[in-house]
Amino acid sequence: TELAVTATRSGGLAGAIGLAIEGLPAGVTVEGDPTIPADKNEVKLTLVAANDAAVVASAIQIRGAAELDGKQDDKQDDKQIARTATAAASGNLCPRTDEQRRTTQVLLAMTMTPPFELRLVDHERQRAVHRGTTYRAEFEIVRKNNFVGELQLEMAAQQARYRQGIRGGTVDVAANADRALYPCFMPEWLPTDLTRRMVVSGVAAVPDPQGHPRYLVQQASGRITMILEGALLKLSAAAGEPTLRAGETLDVPVVVARSSKLPLPVTVELVLPAELAESLRAEPLVLAPGTDRGMLRIAASDNASLQGDWPLTLRATALEENKWPVVSQTEITVRFQNRTTDESRTAKKIP
Question: What are phi and psi of 99, to 5 degrees?
């Protein structure tokens, strides 16, 4: 790789500037003479990595030295001047001084080329996907350089558009496998007037020339493009504005609407935030095919601190092929009252 170094000359300094790079990893050298020629202000240093160099990252510094040709420098007692090169520092979002905008260290990172390609089958096709369902995209794994190991498919951290809840997990691909399905979950609240594009990457652990395992990432050749259609499942709850006291139970009527494409049992459950996990419980309610109504019972512990209005999430899930979730959610607001509050109100009543 090439690294450009620029010198800003002043005071009539025109001679050659010798450069030295400190901190280079073992196996990395500078090609040729690292010098800014006389009367020149820039040079491109070529860094070369040996075939057996370990894949590591190292902070390097570049120092330059030049003769003053008899002129006296106010920072040096001899006739040679030395400076450390600086680069733009991007980590400080609010620098106070010009010095904070520069750094004297640059991170040099060694890399390896992933020994595989991840090709999306029918990558130019736009797929129709129902909201609230899981779409399975097929990928072809093209292995190179005799790579036969395991790898994983992951949703890329940076997507092409707003995520709005679209997500995919981690899929393990067995050694020697050349095909894999990647599940893309599309929440039921996504609008139908925009396509969704999922970016997927492959990750494999490959030893470097020194035998150290390194994780190599290769982005797929195409994005999974999906256009949203209507949901297959809809959950609703006719709870009104219920009140639940500590130590008591609350029955919440729930209704599910299924498409004819989804003749499956549906499990309705209460999704609790962490702060309510010890205070509430509800056994999941299973609605068999052909059954669209039921009662979800929520039980409250005898917790004196459980009070006030809380939004609670109810989730309905059906599993296509016994593993691909179709999900619908709704929310109810429950007012919690503890016994201490009730007793206090009773004591204040005028007979």
Answer: -65, -30
**Spatial separation of the C-alpha atoms in residues 293 and 257, rounded to whole Å:** 9
Query: What pLDDT, on the 0 to 100 scale, is given for residue 111?
Result: 93
8 to each of 16, 136, 292, 313, 339, how far by Cα in Å?
13, 57, 77, 63, 77
Reported pTM: 0.78
Q: What is the pLDDT of residues 136-187, one digit of tens each?
A: 999 999 999 999 999 999 999 888 777 888 999 999 999 999 999 999 999 9
Which two three-digit tokens encode residue 191?
A: 């609008």
Residue that the structure tokens 């702060």 belong to? 275
